[in-house]
Protein backbone atom coordinates (compact mmCIF):
# COMPACT_ATOMS: atom_id res chain seq x y z
CA UNK A 1 0.00 0.00 0.00
CA UNK A 2 1.23 3.54 -0.72
CA UNK A 3 2.52 5.47 2.26
CA UNK A 4 0.12 8.26 3.22
CA UNK A 5 2.05 11.49 3.81
CA UNK A 6 -0.77 13.67 5.14
CA UNK A 7 -0.59 12.70 8.81
CA UNK A 8 1.74 10.71 10.99
CA UNK A 9 0.92 9.28 14.39
CA UNK A 10 2.47 11.10 17.34
CA UNK A 11 0.73 9.10 20.08
CA UNK A 12 3.92 7.28 21.04
CA UNK A 13 7.12 9.09 22.01
CA UNK A 14 10.20 7.00 22.73
CA UNK A 15 12.43 7.98 25.62
CA UNK A 16 15.29 10.16 24.38
CA UNK A 17 18.55 11.06 26.05
CA UNK A 18 19.65 14.69 25.82
CA UNK A 19 23.29 14.47 24.76
CA UNK A 20 23.61 17.20 22.15
CA UNK A 21 27.11 18.65 21.83
CA UNK A 22 28.28 22.21 21.26
CA UNK A 23 28.57 22.59 17.48
CA UNK A 24 31.91 24.42 17.47
CA UNK A 25 35.31 24.17 19.13
CA UNK A 26 37.72 27.07 19.78
CA UNK A 27 41.11 26.95 18.05
CA UNK A 28 43.94 29.32 17.23
CA UNK A 29 45.13 29.74 13.65
CA UNK A 30 47.58 32.10 11.96
CA UNK A 31 46.56 34.28 9.07
CA UNK A 32 48.49 35.28 5.95
CA UNK A 33 50.39 37.91 7.98
CA UNK A 34 51.53 35.34 10.53
CA UNK A 35 49.27 36.85 13.19
CA UNK A 36 47.40 34.53 15.60
CA UNK A 37 43.60 34.50 15.40
CA UNK A 38 41.18 32.91 17.84
CA UNK A 39 38.51 31.11 15.81
CA UNK A 40 35.78 28.51 16.03
CA UNK A 41 35.66 25.38 13.89
CA UNK A 42 32.87 22.86 13.38
CA UNK A 43 32.89 19.70 15.47
CA UNK A 44 32.87 16.27 13.85
CA UNK A 45 32.32 13.08 15.80
CA UNK A 46 31.67 9.42 14.96
CA UNK A 47 28.37 8.01 16.18
CA UNK A 48 27.61 4.31 15.78
CA UNK A 49 23.93 3.38 15.70
CA UNK A 50 23.03 0.09 17.36
CA UNK A 51 19.52 -1.37 17.46
CA UNK A 52 19.04 -3.91 20.25
CA UNK A 53 22.85 -4.25 20.32
CA UNK A 54 23.13 -4.96 16.58
CA UNK A 55 25.39 -2.47 14.80
CA UNK A 56 23.80 -0.68 11.85
CA UNK A 57 26.09 2.15 10.72
CA UNK A 58 28.58 4.76 11.90
CA UNK A 59 27.78 8.39 11.05
CA UNK A 60 30.08 11.40 11.19
CA UNK A 61 28.12 14.25 12.71
CA UNK A 62 28.25 17.66 14.35
CA UNK A 63 26.54 15.97 17.30
CA UNK A 64 24.02 18.69 18.14
CA UNK A 65 20.87 16.55 17.82
CA UNK A 66 22.10 12.94 17.88
CA UNK A 67 18.84 11.39 19.07
CA UNK A 68 16.75 12.96 16.30
CA UNK A 69 19.46 12.22 13.74
CA UNK A 70 19.24 8.56 14.73
CA UNK A 71 15.46 8.48 14.45
CA UNK A 72 15.54 10.19 11.06
CA UNK A 73 18.25 7.89 9.74
CA UNK A 74 16.30 4.77 10.70
CA UNK A 75 13.16 6.22 9.16
CA UNK A 76 14.67 7.50 5.91
CA UNK A 77 16.58 4.27 5.35
CA UNK A 78 13.31 2.41 5.95
CA UNK A 79 14.99 0.18 8.51
CA UNK A 80 12.16 0.87 10.97
CA UNK A 81 8.82 2.06 9.57
CA UNK A 82 6.83 2.54 12.78
CA UNK A 83 8.00 4.80 15.62
CA UNK A 84 5.87 2.70 17.97
CA UNK A 85 8.56 0.02 17.66
CA UNK A 86 11.14 2.29 19.33
CA UNK A 87 11.18 2.35 23.13
CA UNK A 88 14.32 4.39 23.79
CA UNK A 89 17.20 6.21 22.09
CA UNK A 90 20.23 6.60 24.36
CA UNK A 91 23.44 8.38 23.29
CA UNK A 92 26.77 7.64 24.99
CA UNK A 93 29.56 9.83 23.62
CA UNK A 94 32.23 8.04 25.67
CA UNK A 95 31.44 4.93 23.64
CA UNK A 96 30.66 7.01 20.53
CA UNK A 97 27.46 4.99 20.32
CA UNK A 98 23.72 5.52 20.26
CA UNK A 99 21.71 2.56 21.52
CA UNK A 100 18.21 2.15 20.15
CA UNK A 101 15.99 -0.19 22.13
CA UNK A 102 12.86 -1.55 20.48
CA UNK A 103 9.62 -2.27 22.29
CA UNK A 104 9.78 -5.94 21.28
CA UNK A 105 13.52 -6.43 21.77
CA UNK A 106 13.93 -8.30 18.49
CA UNK A 107 15.89 -5.60 16.67
CA UNK A 108 15.40 -4.80 12.99
CA UNK A 109 13.68 -7.55 11.03
CA UNK A 110 16.07 -9.08 8.46
CA UNK A 111 18.75 -6.51 9.35
CA UNK A 112 21.68 -8.29 7.71
CA UNK A 113 19.72 -8.82 4.51
CA UNK A 114 18.64 -5.17 4.44
CA UNK A 115 22.12 -3.74 4.93
CA UNK A 116 24.07 -6.34 2.95
CA UNK A 117 23.57 -4.44 -0.31
CA UNK A 118 24.50 -0.81 0.00
CA UNK A 119 25.31 2.09 -2.30
CA UNK A 120 27.90 4.70 -1.35
CA UNK A 121 26.45 8.05 -2.39
CA UNK A 122 27.91 11.47 -3.11
CA UNK A 123 26.94 12.73 0.34
CA UNK A 124 29.48 14.79 2.27
CA UNK A 125 31.74 12.30 3.97
CA UNK A 126 30.06 9.67 1.75
CA UNK A 127 26.50 8.70 2.53
CA UNK A 128 25.02 5.24 2.25
CA UNK A 129 21.67 3.95 1.11
CA UNK A 130 20.54 0.36 1.59
CA UNK A 131 18.57 -1.80 -0.82
CA UNK A 132 15.49 -1.64 1.43
CA UNK A 133 15.49 2.15 1.01
CA UNK A 134 15.19 1.76 -2.75
CA UNK A 135 12.70 -1.10 -2.51
CA UNK A 136 10.14 1.10 -0.73
CA UNK A 137 10.88 4.35 -2.56
CA UNK A 138 8.15 4.09 -5.18
CA UNK A 139 5.53 3.20 -2.55
CA UNK A 140 5.55 6.87 -1.58
CA UNK A 141 2.75 9.01 -3.00
CA UNK A 142 3.49 12.73 -3.20
CA UNK A 143 0.81 15.38 -3.78
CA UNK A 144 1.02 18.09 -6.40
CA UNK A 145 1.58 21.37 -4.55
CA UNK A 146 1.58 24.79 -6.17
CA UNK A 147 4.09 27.36 -4.94
CA UNK A 148 4.12 31.10 -5.57
CA UNK A 149 7.21 32.88 -6.80
CA UNK A 150 6.67 35.43 -4.02
CA UNK A 151 6.78 32.59 -1.48
CA UNK A 152 10.14 31.45 -2.83
CA UNK A 153 11.52 34.98 -2.50
CA UNK A 154 10.13 35.38 1.02
CA UNK A 155 11.62 32.03 2.05
CA UNK A 156 15.04 32.95 0.68
CA UNK A 157 14.92 36.25 2.57
CA UNK A 158 13.88 34.54 5.81
CA UNK A 159 16.58 31.87 5.55
CA UNK A 160 19.29 34.55 5.55
CA UNK A 161 18.82 35.04 9.30
CA UNK A 162 19.73 31.40 9.98
CA UNK A 163 23.01 29.54 9.27
CA UNK A 164 24.50 30.59 12.63
CA UNK A 165 27.04 27.76 12.78
CA UNK A 166 28.12 28.38 9.19
CA UNK A 167 28.69 32.06 9.92
CA UNK A 168 30.69 31.21 13.04
CA UNK A 169 32.75 28.31 11.74
CA UNK A 170 31.86 27.33 8.17
CA UNK A 171 32.20 23.68 7.08
CA UNK A 172 28.50 22.81 7.54
CA UNK A 173 25.32 22.53 5.50
CA UNK A 174 21.95 23.87 6.58
CA UNK A 175 18.52 22.35 5.93
CA UNK A 176 15.06 23.61 6.79
CA UNK A 177 11.51 22.30 6.86
CA UNK A 178 9.24 25.12 5.77
CA UNK A 179 5.55 25.87 5.65
CA UNK A 180 5.33 28.50 2.97
CA UNK A 181 8.02 31.02 3.87
CA UNK A 182 7.87 30.10 7.57
CA UNK A 183 10.78 28.05 8.91
CA UNK A 184 9.53 25.22 11.12
CA UNK A 185 12.90 23.56 11.77
CA UNK A 186 16.41 24.54 10.76
CA UNK A 187 19.34 22.18 11.30
CA UNK A 188 23.03 22.43 10.43
CA UNK A 189 25.44 19.50 10.27
CA UNK A 190 28.71 18.53 8.60
CA UNK A 191 26.70 16.76 5.89
CA UNK A 192 23.43 17.78 4.27
CA UNK A 193 22.19 14.19 4.56
CA UNK A 194 22.66 14.32 8.35
CA UNK A 195 20.76 17.60 8.58
CA UNK A 196 18.00 16.09 6.44
CA UNK A 197 17.76 12.99 8.63
CA UNK A 198 17.64 15.12 11.78
CA UNK A 199 14.64 17.01 10.42
CA UNK A 200 13.06 13.67 9.44
CA UNK A 201 13.53 12.53 13.03
CA UNK A 202 11.83 15.67 14.32
CA UNK A 203 8.91 15.13 11.94
CA UNK A 204 8.58 11.48 12.98
CA UNK A 205 8.75 12.33 16.66
CA UNK A 206 6.16 15.11 16.44
CA UNK A 207 3.87 13.38 13.94
CA UNK A 208 4.31 16.05 11.27
CA UNK A 209 3.38 15.18 7.69
CA UNK A 210 5.26 16.65 4.76
CA UNK A 211 2.56 16.92 2.10
CA UNK A 212 2.21 20.72 2.36
CA UNK A 213 5.83 21.49 3.22
CA UNK A 214 8.92 22.78 1.42
CA UNK A 215 12.39 21.40 2.11
CA UNK A 216 15.29 23.84 1.77
CA UNK A 217 18.98 22.96 1.73
CA UNK A 218 22.21 24.82 1.16
CA UNK A 219 23.62 21.66 -0.44
CA UNK A 220 23.20 20.18 -3.89
CA UNK A 221 20.12 18.18 -4.83
CA UNK A 222 21.41 14.67 -5.48
CA UNK A 223 19.41 11.47 -5.83
CA UNK A 224 19.98 10.78 -2.12
CA UNK A 225 18.35 14.05 -1.05
CA UNK A 226 15.43 13.50 -3.43
CA UNK A 227 14.95 10.01 -1.93
CA UNK A 228 14.98 11.36 1.60
CA UNK A 229 12.50 14.11 0.73
CA UNK A 230 10.18 11.53 -0.84
CA UNK A 231 10.38 9.28 2.22
CA UNK A 232 9.56 12.34 4.35
CA UNK A 233 6.57 13.04 2.11
CA UNK A 234 7.83 16.51 1.08
CA UNK A 235 6.91 17.41 -2.53
CA UNK A 236 8.99 20.59 -3.01
CA UNK A 237 12.78 20.92 -2.83
CA UNK A 238 14.62 24.25 -2.87
CA UNK A 239 18.41 24.51 -2.93
CA UNK A 240 20.95 27.31 -2.95
CA UNK A 241 23.24 24.96 -4.85
CA UNK A 242 22.91 22.88 -8.03
CA UNK A 243 21.50 19.48 -8.94
CA UNK A 244 22.70 16.20 -10.39
CA UNK A 245 21.24 14.40 -13.38
CA UNK A 246 20.26 11.33 -11.36
CA UNK A 247 18.61 13.61 -8.83
CA UNK A 248 16.62 15.23 -11.64
CA UNK A 249 15.56 11.89 -13.12
CA UNK A 250 14.38 10.67 -9.73
CA UNK A 251 12.49 13.92 -9.07
CA UNK A 252 10.75 13.49 -12.43
CA UNK A 253 9.80 9.90 -11.57
CA UNK A 254 8.47 10.80 -8.12
CA UNK A 255 6.86 14.13 -8.98
CA UNK A 256 9.12 16.24 -6.78
CA UNK A 257 9.28 19.94 -7.66
CA UNK A 258 12.98 20.79 -7.90
CA UNK A 259 14.12 24.41 -7.55
CA UNK A 260 17.86 25.11 -7.42
CA UNK A 261 20.42 27.91 -7.69
CA UNK A 262 17.99 29.84 -5.51
CA UNK A 263 19.51 32.99 -4.09
CA UNK A 264 18.23 36.54 -3.90
CA UNK A 265 15.83 37.06 -6.81
CA UNK A 266 17.18 34.21 -8.92
CA UNK A 267 16.17 30.55 -9.14
CA UNK A 268 15.93 27.76 -11.69
CA UNK A 269 13.04 25.28 -11.83
CA UNK A 270 14.37 21.95 -13.09
CA UNK A 271 11.21 19.93 -12.47
CA UNK A 272 7.61 20.81 -11.67
CA UNK A 273 7.50 24.07 -13.61
CA UNK A 274 3.71 23.69 -13.87
CA UNK A 275 3.45 24.07 -10.07
CA UNK A 276 5.07 27.54 -10.01
CA UNK A 277 2.84 30.63 -9.96
CA UNK A 278 4.89 33.51 -11.35
CA UNK A 279 3.33 36.32 -9.31
CA UNK A 280 6.44 38.42 -8.67
CA UNK A 281 8.52 38.42 -11.84
CA UNK A 282 11.56 40.68 -11.38
CA UNK A 283 12.48 43.35 -13.87
CA UNK A 284 14.98 42.17 -16.44
CA UNK A 285 18.33 43.91 -16.42
CA UNK A 286 18.81 46.17 -19.40
CA UNK A 287 21.31 44.89 -21.92
CA UNK A 288 24.56 46.84 -21.99
CA UNK A 289 25.38 48.06 -25.48
CA UNK A 290 28.70 49.46 -26.55
CA UNK A 291 28.81 53.15 -27.48
CA UNK A 292 29.52 53.79 -31.16
CA UNK A 293 33.06 54.81 -31.91
CA UNK A 294 33.48 58.42 -33.04
Q: In the CATH hierarchy, what is the architecture of the largest domain at level 2? A: 3-Layer(aba) Sandwich
CATH topology of the largest domain: Cytidine Deaminase, domain 2
Strand order of the largest sheet: 12-11-13-14-15-16
Order of helices and strands: EEEEEHEEHEEHEHHEEHEHEHEEE
- CATH classification class of the largest domain: Alpha Beta
Tell me the helix content.
10-25%
Specify the overall morphology: globular
CATH superfamily of the largest domain: Cytidine Deaminase, domain 2
Alpha carbon gap, first and last residue = 75 Å
The percent range for strand residues is 25-35%
The structural domain count equals: 2
Number of helices: 8
Number of strands: 17
Rg, nearest Å: 21 Å
**Poorly predicted spans:** 1-7
Key attributes of the depicted protein:
294 residues; alpha/beta; Ubiquitin-like (UB roll); Cytidine Deaminase, domain 2; 2 domains; six-stranded mixed beta sheet; five-stranded mixed beta sheet; 8 helices; 17 strands; globular; disordered N terminus
Helix and strand layout, with pairings?
Blueprint: E1 15-16, E2 24-30, E3 36-42, E4 45-51, E5 54-61, H1 66-76, E6 86-92, E7 97-102, H2 111-116, E8 118-120, E9 128-130, H3 131-135, E10 147-148, H4 149-159, H5 164-169, E11 173-179, E12 182-189, H6 192-206, E13 214-217, H7 223-231, E14 236-239, H8 245-254, E15 257-263, E16 266-271, E17 276-277
Helix pairs in contact: 1-6, 6-7, 7-8
Structure, explained:
By secondary structure, this protein is of the alpha/beta class. The chain folds into two domains: 125 residues, Ubiquitin-like (UB roll) (Roll); 131 residues, Cytidine Deaminase, domain 2 (3-Layer(aba) Sandwich). It is 25% helix and 31% strand. It is built from eight helices and 17 strands. The strands form five sheets. Strands 12-11-13-14-15-16 form a six-stranded mixed sheet. Helix 1 packs across helix 6, helix 6 runs parallel beside helix 7 and helix 7 packs parallel to helix 8. The N and C termini lie far apart (75 Å). The N terminus is likely disordered.
Amino acid sequence: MPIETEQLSAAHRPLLSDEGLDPTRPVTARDEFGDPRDLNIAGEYPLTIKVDDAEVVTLMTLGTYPEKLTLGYLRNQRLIDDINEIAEVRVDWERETVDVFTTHGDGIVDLHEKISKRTVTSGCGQGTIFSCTLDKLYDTRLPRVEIRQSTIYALLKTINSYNEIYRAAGAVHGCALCEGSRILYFVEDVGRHNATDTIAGEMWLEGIGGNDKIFYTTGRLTSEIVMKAAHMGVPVLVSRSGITYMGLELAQDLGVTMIARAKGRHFLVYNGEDTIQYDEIPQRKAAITASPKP
